[in-house]
Amino acid sequence: MNKHLFTSESVTEGHPDKVCDQISDAILDGILEKDSEGRVACEALVTTNRVIISGEITTENHPDYEKIVRDTIREIGYTDSSSRFAADTVDVKMYIDKQSPHIAQGVDMNTDREQGAGDQGLMFGFACRETPELMPLPIQLSHRLTEKLANLRKNNTMSWLGPDGKSQVTVEYNGNTPVNVTNVVIATQHDDMVDQHGTQNDEHAFINNEVINKVIIPVLDKYEIDYEENFIVNGTGRFVLGGPEADTGLTGRKIIVDTYGGYARHGGGAFSGKDPSKVDRSSSYMARYVAKNIVSADLAERCEIQLAYSIGVAEPVSLSINTFGTGKLSDEELMNGVRQVFDLKPMEIINSLKLKAPIYSKLAAYGHFGREGFPWEMTDKTDQLKQQFGMGEISVG
Question: pTM for the complete prediction?
Fold first, then answer.
């Protein structure tokens, strides 16, 4: 078999780009809570002592945008007023206009026409049997590592951790089967503890030991895969200054982190700050839903879905399915069956996946896929797919 390595990364909620994603999605949720028909395209920029919000927003109930920004930063953990990025002291600037009427006339549904796509574009969804969540193992491990860092920081188990951080996981494959984790990298912001531990080397030794034993090993053990104890923690030695105080962040700059860690293709559109009329977001969720149900139904070991849309047009201009030679049926047969089981028009996607609810802040860090509690992660179409193909209990391979 073909042995090879694959690496994916994740970032914590305190990473500057993720701060922006969370602000943009918190603003979206704030609008959807009072106006489910609101149109939102909201971008954020963060840097030292400053947050800039810009966007095209059409709603009858504008929330308190500045309060949402400060509350989001506070929840992430930037609360030290002596720093140069903190919830209560950061300068917030707002630049908001309405959605273009030329976009609205193609997107809004009326008695004469269905709701069209909010933009042209192509979107991908993916699922595989590498993890219980039907996600690629490298990105799933990476997300759980960064999430673990945040949880231990917030419950004060490792209160010296800062909000900013990254993870990176390298997995060895034998063909399509993950067999070993060969490398884990963690970079995590931390308090200045030199006085407490004596020297920078002693400080680093403490952080290294804590992160390995309380973060890395518990996450790897949960997924029951062999791993080499090849762990790198804070490779530069120190990471005291972090977050927007140290680096500028922008909404939509972590699109690979948000999806499949580079393991599957990406159409290029970001998610955060966009209401579900934007097919960049809603159709990516739908493509994941379709792919996951195909794999859950044992119709394939791995499946990638591509959808493409034209602005103002309801039906997708194309649907493509690739099962990489693992399908029980041909990709063409699967494609024809999917069209019978799933309605891929924007309004039907929004309704079936309940995308007008204020659910997006929860998704803005640690991945949009492979997480429980979201409609596109359900596998409720597996029986219908089997019936569509006249199959009962089937297996692949």
Answer: 0.93
